[in-house]
Specification:
The protein is α/β, with parallel strands linked by helices and 411 residues long. It has two domains: 285 residues, Alpha-Beta Barrel (TIM Barrel), CATH 3.20.20.20; 88 residues, no CATH class.
Length: 411
């Protein structure tokens, strides 16, 4: 019997987790064994951290909506994105309690402010982003079993080294300092940067060099899981996210990254967590089968695909050629439709108004054909041109939900 790509992924992960349990160390460990079975480290699929940007300034409703969407998309950890230079430690505590009271999910805090980090620790935060050379001494008394992301920077002094060798030297130095102070769960972030400016190639070189260095005997004790900040790339390119996520996932799996970090902050990134999750599965299966990430029973196509429908033979000499759109429009005397989409709920809203702008009927669904049929049955209009338009727009709305694209009704 042919095994599906999803099933194959699950079987491979199951075997790798059993192996990982016998190799627990600084490079492979449970994020929080009391709450979750997630292990990060060698030869494991990296969990995905999904950040709620400027989380401390958002309402409870919007936070819970985002968390639900992220979890449904495959996120493994929800990140509370704090606001730089606007610390709000009380709100950090409130958000942790809010998320925990509604969802069973690991939570991280993204801050370098001591009050916010300590507030998160008071609420038993599961992961801290981030410590660097400028602030780590403030946190030497933190619980030693909390996973902490470390950076090769000194943000307080605006120090951001560019040279890959210096970045790795700084990471090794910080690793040594923190391990000597009893910290057991560290994650190294060599910093993935934006293409063109400041440039992605230099930062990728740092990741590759880190992996090369820790293969040497004298650096083996410094080996940590790597943090791969995918959002630094995909957020700052006006290119469809699915291909970028797929390519970065292949680099992450090939280089055995420990954890992936992403966001869906802007409209263009809607659905990005799901794209990344599926891309991780595809590349992880391919790596363990030692093949390119193709024909694995998992695909992440959105705008394109691999299969074409065969065209039957027909006599085109008898066909009716339609070469011109006649833009004439006659308003429907019964009223008009307004269509909206909710990407978080994955729903289409259809509102029917009289021509005096009085709302008569509302339809909510996720399938364009089902909505079209229900609207026809309601007999709100029998104008065939209007119904033709409605069917076209509903299908467009459905496609936009699938792709995560913004929907704008054709007037």
């Amino acid at each position: 019997m042919e095994i599906s790509g999803e099933s194959e992924f699950s079987e491979i992960v199951k075997k790798q987790l059993e192996l990982a349990k016998d190799q627990l160390s600084f490079h492979t460990y449970y994020l929080n064994e009391e709450k979750s079975k997630i292990i990060i480290g060698r030869n494991l699929p990296p969990p995905i951290i999904a950040e709620i940007v400027n989380c401390t300034e958002k309402s409870d409703y919007n936070i819970l909506k985002k968390v639900k969407h992220y979890i449904g998309s495959g996120a493994d950890i929800i990140d509370i994105g704090c606001v730089s230079n606007k610390p709000n430690s009380d709100r950090v505590k409130e958000i942790i309690k809010l998320v925990r009271s509604n969802f069973n999910i690991l939570i991280s805090v993204d801050s370098m402010d001591s009050d916010e980090i300590n507030a998160a620790v008071d609420e038993d935060i599961d992961l801290i982003l981030s410590l660097d050379l400028g602030n780590y001494k403030e946190f030497l008394n933190l619980p030693k079993n909390i996973p902490i992301v470390i950076l090769p920077t000194n943000v307080k002094e605006a120090y951001f080294p560019k040279d890959p060798e210096i970045r790795i030297k700084n990471l090794f130095k910080l690793t040594n300092e923190l391990q000597n102070n009893g910290f057991k769960k560290l994650i190294a972030d060599p910093l993935l940067e934006t293409p063109i400016t400041p440039g992605i190639c230099n930062s990728l070189e740092t990741y590759f060099l880190y992996k090369k260095k820790i293969s040497e005997d004298k650096y083996q004790n410094f080996e940590l899981p790597l943090f791969f900040g995918i959002s630094n790339v995909v957020e700052l390119m006006d290119i469809d996210s699915v291909g970028i996520n797929g390519l970065l996932a292949s680099i992450a799996i090939e280089q055995d990254m420990g954890v992936l970090f992403t966001v869906e902050h802007s409209t263009k990134l809607m659905g990005g967590v799901r794209e990344l999750k599926e891309s991780v599965k595809l590349n992880f299966v391919a790596k363990h089968k030692k093949t390119p990430p193709i024909n694995q029973g998992i695909s992440v196509f959105r705008a394109k695909g691999k299969i074409n429908e065969k065209t039957p033979k027909f006599n085109d000499k008898r066909a009716i050629l339609v070469n011109e759109l006649i833009p004439e429009y006659t308003p429907d005397e019964n009223g008009y439709f307004r269509i909206y989409v909710n990407h978080y709920l994955r729903k289409i809203y259809v509102l029917f108004y009289t021509n005096d702008d009085i709302l008569l009927q509302t339809f909510i669904g996720d399938n364009s054909e089902a909505l079209s049929k229900k609207i026809i049955q309601s007999k709100l209009t029998q104008d065939v041109y209007h119904l033709n338009y409605l069917g076209r727009e509903l299908k467009k709305a459905e496609i936009c939900i699938f792709f995560g694209k913004p929907y704008i009704q054709d007037e």
